[in-house]
Design goal:
Elements: H1 14-19, H2 41-76, H3 89-93, H4 95-108, H5 134-140
Amino acid sequence: MTDTTNTTADVAPASEVLTESPSEPLAPATDTTEDPETFPREYVEDLRKENGKYRTRAQQADDLAARLHTALVTATGRLQDPTDLVFDEDHLRDSPKMIEAIDALLTAKPHLANRKPTGDIGQGASGVTDTFSLSGLLRSGAK
């Protein structure tokens, strides 16, 4: 009977096995066949230009929608600064929804309301059509 037990000298330690590196670095696999272009370069450039035009138009439409929203809020006359109401596309389609949003904003933040005085506030022209007459004042006996 023979003894087949391994000693620790016959087996390499685990740390050496994990840190060993091959003598030659692995070269990345290179594909010798080149992929042909799926589309011609000019066609792709034309598509990119066309898409660029559409992106520009979409940005312009977004800008115009924001300006329209601001104009509609200004037309209500309820907010001091019409940009206080956050833009929402639904406000452009449904004016009662915009009015509800303005009401909710003014309920939450009443200081955003329009503070422009309206009506007769006791200043400026009061509607008196008579001209001032010093002789008329003296005749009335006013002091």
